[in-house]
Amino acid sequence: MGNKSSKPKKEALPKHFSHRHPLNLITHDPETLTLITSPCSACKLELSGTRLYSCTVCNDFFLHGSCFDMPKEIIHPFHKEHVLVLLSKPAYKEGRFRCDACGEKGKGFSYHCDPCGTDLHNYCAVMPFSVTHDCHVHRLKLVFGSLYANKKFSCAICQMPGSRQWLYRCRPCEFYAHLKCVRGGGGGVGGGGIAALGTFTVGGGIVVLGALPGEMDDDGGDDDEIDGQDLSDVGNGAVDLIGALLGFL
Predict the structure, then answer these.
(1) CA angle 176–186–49, rounded 5-degree value
(2) Residue 97 DSSP SS3
(3) Which of 64, 118, 61 has its CA nearest to residue 87?
(4) Domains located in the chain, CATH noted
(5) Which residue, 68, 180, 182, is CA-closest to 136?
(6) What is the pLDDT of residues 124-139, one digit of tens each?
(7) What are 74-113's pLDDT values in tens digits?
(8) Helix, strand, coil share (%) of the chain residues, nearest 5
(9) Could you give the count of Cα atoms lying within 13 Å of 64 in the half-sphere of its Cβ?
(10) What is the pTM of this model?
(11) What is the DSSP letter of 38?
């Protein structure tokens, strides 16, 4: 008797820690995306890109591929003291958090430090440390707050004030801009190209975010070091660039 032919096993559908049902990887062209009215369940921004995840059961659960890929734990130069943990829901009973980067409220995914109460939108946490933008002739660098004593600044793009939040700055021109104005209407950075944000693995799957040499303003934090440690020697070295983490940037 011949051997029974074995049917190929079906590949298991991916799952995400934030949702109880399996997800389908789907690809859409821009025209098809207009038929989907639900935003990304992680960042709460309009769906974009060609790689999306859709729940096999729920009609309103979608994730950008880049949001699906977000690391569960990161160390960020803004908050080097503790690991920031990715939460699928705000840590607070009111169901919202205030982002320490952009100053706006959020109800989607956030990177959270429980001891300090630090909260970052998932997309703010991976904003590049250096960008080019149509609004200004020079490269803009990320700064973790205004240098003025009152912590206020005026955005050169929207002409509106800002206070106690991250901003993009051209130091020689004293040019300041809100994160959201540089980012544009969606999750991405408007205008020209963006500088790569290096990511590095350390033990336990924690990802250390660090600027490439020369990409962070002197006032924004360490350039290519975290707690005095050269990031080029952390863990297994560079594993990805920011474009792989956040495809809609």
Answers:
(1) 135
(2) strand
(3) 118
(4) 15-68 (no CATH), 71-121 (no CATH), 130-195 (3.30.60)
(5) 182
(6) 998 888 888 888 999 9
(7) 999 999 889 999 999 999 999 999 999 999 999 999 999 9
(8) 10, 35, 55
(9) 27
(10) 0.77
(11) -
